[in-house]
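[SOLVED] Need 3D model of a two-part complex

Original post:
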Amino acid sequence: MRALYFDGQPAIKEVPRPEPGPGEVMVRVHLAGICGTDLQVLRGYHGFTGVMGHEFVGQVAGPEDSPWLGQRVAGEITIGCGTCDLCRRGLAGHCRERQVLGLKGRDGAFAPYLTLPAANLHAVDPEVPDVFAVFTEPLAAALQVLTAAPVSPAARVLVVGDGSLGLLISWVLVVNGAEVHLAGHHAEHLALARPRGVATFLSPDLPPGDYDIVVEASGSPSGLELALARVRPRGTVVMKSTYVGRYPLDPAALVVPEVSLVGCRCGPFAGALRLLKDGRVDPRPLIHRTFPLARGLEALAWAQRPGVLKVLLDCREAD
Amino acid sequence: MRALYFDGQPAIKEVPRPEPGPGEVMVRVHLAGICGTDLQVLRGYHGFTGVMGHEFVGQVAGPEDSPWLGQRVAGEITIGCGTCDLCRRGLAGHCRERQVLGLKGRDGAFAPYLTLPAANLHAVDPEVPDVFAVFTEPLAAALQVLTAAPVSPAARVLVVGDGSLGLLISWVLVVNGAEVHLAGHHAEHLALARPRGVATFLSPDLPPGDYDIVVEASGSPSGLELALARVRPRGTVVMKSTYVGRYPLDPAALVVPEVSLVGCRCGPFAGALRLLKDGRVDPRPLIHRTFPLARGLEALAWAQRPGVLKVLLDCREAD
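Solution:
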C-alpha cells in the first residue's frame, strides 16, 4: 500500500500492509486529520520514523474472526506494554515502553490501513459521519481540560490560541455556562467561536482582568507568558500545547500567587463521541481542505500555512 | 523601642513604638523566628524597608478596650485592603495592595512590639509554650501542602530540602500513613526526621523510583529539577520555595506526563495550633539557637550559616 511515510523527510511511498498481532485489528482508514504534533514530527521533534498520523476514522477490516469486523471506529492512540509498574497502576497511557500511533514505535493513520489493539477501539455510531468522527481524538483532548481543571458555570476562563485545538476547547467549555474568552491572532478563526457564545479577542486587544482558569493552547512562549500574567491568584493554567525550547519560569510567579500549572494531553474518546453524535459539537467549520492521501505532501504543506485550521486526508484507496 | 530594621543593611535601631489603627491590636512580641524569606530580604529580594520578621508569638498589650487584651497570640501575616475584587472574592491573602508583616509595607516582629488587625490573631492555648507557638506560621505553611496536593495514606511522597520547612513538611505528611521520603544535603538534619518515620536520603543517594507527589522545599533550581525528574506521570509537584532567577522549564516535561506544578504559600494557623497543642508536632529539635533581640545582627549571621535550622529572637525588652 502507499502511505505518507517520514524518515527525515516526508514521502508517499510503498510500504507493506500491516498485519494485526494478537488482540489487534486491522482498520481500513477512511479519513485522517493532520495535527500540530504531526508538523512537529516533520521538524524531527519526536525522532519518529514510519507512517505518520494519529487522528482517524475507519472501518475494521480484519481479522475475519474479530467481533469488531465491519464496525466503523475511532481509536485511542497509545499502546502500553501492559506489564510495567505504570501500566499496572492504571497509567498505561504513560507507559515508558508505550507505542503511539504515528508518533512512537507504531505506523500511523496516513495510510489505507493501520493496526491497533481492539482494546483501543471505540465504535462510531452510524449517525456520526466520517467528517465528524475524524475529530474524536482532538475533541477528546479538548475535553480533558475539564478533568485537568474542573470548570464551574461561574468560572471566567481564557483560552489562549485560536488554532483547531483552542477552538474546540472554547466550544467545549462554553456549553456549561462558564464565561469563556478566546484570544488569538486570526480574526477568521475567532469568528468560528463567536456564534457559539465565546467572547473572542485578538490577543493585543484582550481587555484587562484576570481569569480563574487559563488554557494555553497556542504552543508558544508568548502564550504561556499571557496565561501566567492573566490567571488569578490560586487559579489554574492548563497547558495543552508543547513547543521546542525552554520557558524561563520565575518560581515566585507560581508560589506567591499559589497558581497551579497543569499538564494535560489525551482525553476521553467516549465523551467526545457523545458530543459528536448529538451534534453538540459540529467540527466541520474547522476543516480547511481535504486531500486524497496520494497528495499527502501537498496536504502537509497546506497544514503548515499560517492561519490554516484542520487539513484532512482521504485515505481510501481508489481501488 | 529598639528593633531589627532593614534599610539596605540590617541594623538594631531606635524606632517609634507602633500605634494600633482602627480594628488593630498591639502585640508585645515574646519570641520571633528567622525564616529563609528574611534572609532574602537581606539580599534586597523583596525591596522591603522597615522592621523585619513575620514569625512570632506574643501577648496582646493594647488597646485597653480590646477583647484580646492579655491574650497570648500567633498572627497571620497578610493584611488585605478589604475592598478590592480579590478581597471580595475571598482572596485577601493575595490582595494586590496587601501589607505583609515584616515583608511588605508593614513593620514586623523583630521588635518588642508590633501591630496587626485583630482579625489576623489566633489565640494560643496556655498549654502551648512560646517555643512551640513561634512555629505556628511555618507549620501552617507546611500543612498547606495537604491542601495543595491531597496526600492519601497510600501515596509515595518525596520532600526535597532538609531545611526547617522541609522537615516540618515531612513530619506533617508522615502522620497520615503515607510513605514519605526526605532528600537533603545535611545528615544531621535528616537525622531529625528519621525517628518520626520518614525515610531519609542524602540527595545523591536517593534510590530509583517515582513519587505520586514531590514537595520542592529546597528553594534551588536543582531541587525543582529533581522534583520534575522523580514525579510520576499524572503526579503533582508542590512548589513551596522560591528563589531568585528563572527555571528553564521544558513545556513537554509537564504536558506529556500530565504533571501538575502547584504553587503553595501560607497555610491554616488553626490546624497548626492544634498540632502544636497536642504535641503531635514538637518543633524544638529545629531550634538552633536563641538570641536576645539586641544581638539580632549576630542572629541573622548565624541563620545564614550553612546547615543551621531555626534561629529565634527573644524580643522581650529587659525592662
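Edit: The CA atoms of residues 157 and 180 of chain A lie 5 Å apart.
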